[in-house]
Amino acid sequence: MKILHFSDSHAGAPAEEWSSYLDKRWVGIFNYWFRRRFQHDQKVLKKAAEIMIKSDADLIICSGDITSTGQPSEFKKALEILEPLAKSKRMLYVPGNHDFYVFDEKCNNAMRDAFLVLNNNTLTMSDLPAKITYDECDIIIVNESWPANLISSCGSVKKKDSNLIENMLKIKDKPVILLGHYPLIEDRPIMRLRHRLWGQERLSKMLRDGKIDISLCGHVHRPYQMQLGDRGRGEYCSGSVTKNAVISEIIYDKEVDVFSHKLIKI
């Protein structure tokens, strides 16, 4: 089974309405115009999408942050590139903290619409956490992103979601891949205090104990892998596709029960 994984493309746009300056969006818009737009080239995302469409991948996974402030115009930009990919391949997408950025209903409706499109019209946000069987692996999708205060980029795993995932894993007959936006393994907890995932302890333990075989995430813009064993189990962060011009390839070989990982240069 071959999976292509990407994340954090961060499409941006000017403020759509005056209310953008009354909530967290003004921070994200300022950040986009003075930093992110120089780092995240949507032409790179378009090229990546073309590569993935032509590939022989069994599944495409996006672990969030396809926008900068969750505005409808940003989702429109992202979908112009990603919708053809979702129509040509089986695809899974989970929102990142920049996609579920504020409590504004227009923004959140745009996110829910994008979620439906990029999950091949098979899932809604209210279905999460969800367990889906793809060929040789089970994939569990969990939402960890919620609107936060002005200075926080943190996410959280709800207790009820951890309970549901634990129940899903009581019977396991194939490898399990967890798809979320945030890393489960936090190697710099103090430095990343404003960016961490709260309530992840139980999921992290499931990963260490082998109940979860692979954690696929984004949020951190540099690609990396943390293997917990010699069979390729662990956590894979694809980094930002538009900043690093790479996508991740994960292959599961059922015959030897091993995951392998490499980066594909765009």
Could you characterize the architecture of this molecule?
The protein is an alpha/beta fold and 266 residues long. The protein has helices spanning 25-39, 42-54, 72-88, 105-118, 159-168, 201-208, 241-244; strands at residues 2-6, 59-62, 91-93, 130-134, 137-141, 155-156, 176-179, 197-198, 214-217, 224-227, 234-237, 246-253, 258-265. The strands form 3 sheets. Strands 4-5-7-9-11-10 form a 6-stranded mixed β-sheet, with no helix packed on it. A 5-stranded mixed β-sheet has the order 3-2-1-12-13. Helix 3 packs parallel to helix 4 (105-118). The chain is globular. It starts with a strand and ends with a strand.
Largest sheet: 6 strands, mixed
Helical content (DSSP H or I, runs of 4+):
25-40%
Radius of gyration: 17 Å
**SSE ordering:** EHHEHEHEEEHEEHEEEHEE
Given helix and strand content, the structural type is alpha/beta
N-to-C span: 21 Å
Q: Provide the low-confidence segments as ranges.
A: none
